[in-house]
Amino acid sequence: MKTILLIFTLVLSHGLMLAQNSCEEALEVSQGTHECATLIGEVSDDLECAGLLIGEYVNWYYYTAEEDETLLVTSSLSQNGNWDSRLNILTGPCGTLTCLASDDDGGSGYTSDLTFEAEAGVTYFIVFDDQWTTNPGEFYIGSEDDVENYVDPGNTGGGGDETPETLIIFEATTLPNVIAGDCVVDMNGDFLDDIVSVSGSTATVSYQQENGTYFSGIITGPSPENSPSWSIAAGDLDNNGMNDLMYGGGGGVSLMLRSDDGSTFTEWATDEYVFSQRGNMVDINNDGILDDDGDLDEMFICLVMELADLNTSKED
């Protein structure tokens, strides 16, 4: 008798697992918290929900609304920890399903959390896919007022669909005579960011105004030995109150030093081969004077003694 009971229990458990394998065999759920077992089900062609990529395995559940209601479906439960679930809600007959909603990381951490308006008599398929994990977890469906162990994403810094009090709105601005923006830096000391675009021997500067508009100016100089094809940095290297530019190219570094009135460049270039993928200007030796690093592989540092030689040569 015990052997028969054990076999019956195993068969019943196996049948429950298979019941989640496809849309036709989806497991019915009521309002409350349910276990989502290890994901083993089949992926349907209808599961390209809301543009989200679907993994290789899914678990299928369905819920039929008895009345018009607002439903919360969430895995943002304390017992789930940081379960990296992805949730899809679909309607319609199997084979021609329609995506209603989906969520990835909308709950606390990597959990899922969404709310939708359900209509009486409509069946909704709840599908978890394994884009990130096949691990099991738990999910809740029902009213937000009745959920237990809910970790509200609005109070954890997580996702959710709450709208912030202040929206940041971006507006496009067309800049004259600019081929591409190479760097953003205050080039005239008015504490407003300007945009620098370099082409050959000329640097075009779009000077920002207090009203958000720009006017264009140019800084001329010799054709540099090294163009800013890999990196560009800005800073006042010779301490004349004008930001200079450092061009990092595929074979060397050029310092483009601005005149005292800021209208022209004088070039100082390296003789050594420098493949500069990134450039920075920092005060390495804490003497209040900028130094520069024009190379990630062979660090090129221009310290105060070299700058003194550079200033002397400029005066000559």
List its salient traits.
316 residues; mainly beta; five-stranded mixed beta sheet; four-stranded antiparallel beta sheet; 2 helices; 19 strands; 32% strand; disordered N terminus
List the helices and strands and how they pair.
Layout: H1 2-18, E1 27-28, E2 32-36, E3 58-64, E4 69-74, E5 86-91, E6 98-104, E7 113-118, E8 123-129, E9 137-142, E10 183-185, E11 194-199, E12 202-208, E13 214-220, E14 231-235, E15 244-248, E16 253-258, E17 265-269, E18 280-282, E19 291-293, H2 304-315
Parallel strand pairs: 1-3
Antiparallel strand pairs: 2-9, 3-8, 4-7, 4-9, 5-6, 5-8, 10-11, 11-12, 12-13, 14-15, 15-16, 16-17, 18-19
N-to-C order of helices and strands: HEEEEEEEEEEEEEEEEEEEH
How large is the count of helical segments? 2
- State Rg: 31 Å
Helix content: under 10%
Distance between the termini: 107 Å
- Approximate strand percentage: 25-35%
Tell me the structural class: mainly beta
Described by strand count, sense and barrel closure, the largest sheet is: 5 strands, mixed
Q: Give the strand order of the largest sheet, numbering strands 1, 2, ... along the chain.
A: 1-3-8-5-6
Number-wise, the strands total 19
Name the poorly predicted regions.
Answer: 1-19, 157-163, 293-308, 311-316
Mean pLDDT: 78
General shape: elongated
